[in-house]
Amino acid sequence: MIQHTPGTIYLADQREALITTLSRRFRTFGGSSGAAEAAKPPFGALCAFNEETLMPAQRVTIHAERAGYVVVVPVTGTLWVSGQIGTDDGLEIDLETVLLLPVAAQSTVTFANPYGTETLTFLHMWLKGRTVFGPVTPHRFPFSSAALNNQLHEIVPGVNKGQRWLPFSLRLGRFDGRQKTRCSLQNSDDHFFTYILAGTFEIDGRLLHEHDALALWGLEEVEIEALSHDALLLVMVVK
User: Fold this and answer.
1) Is the whole model's pTM more than 0.85, yes or no?
2) What pLDDT score does 133 carry?
3) CB atoms near residue 165 (< 10 Å)
């Protein structure tokens, strides 16, 4: 009998849907920014994981209940992000860019779709971290789509840089069918989280389809195999 390590599968059709005239938000777990009353609890430092589609020329504002970080990954186009980020007009975030935005407790973050006729899809993940004081400085992490081919490409490294401590790292990978890779966890308190953006994967013996997610803990290495062509996944290692 195959012995699976401890884990939780978040099926796509079990995500909480918040649908308005402005947007369609699908919550894998947590509230919009990790609200305490959410039905599915946080996973380590990762308080909330959302996929959102903004209607043409619309915007949504989210209240940050606690200090920490929001990570933004555009999926289908250029996104505008504004809030306490040191600029009145906000930031333009293109495809092939990940935005890391420290947020103060009780602040707000606004996402806007600049397209007049097209919808815009993006991911926003909320993590708890050290209390943010003073000016809030965003960080862009650009990457090349070619760098994702058949490997997990690290985009946001979870390392100490000066006074900034990140409770996570982030990787993306796009794989041909039957391609395999491994994700090593360096520390005993590291947790593995993945979200399937496209295609089908087998991860640690578990079958995952598009928009499914998987959380694992208590292991040193995770085996990943793509079961379809052009399969794309996001991986976070969180504390």
Assistant:
1) yes
2) 45
3) 12
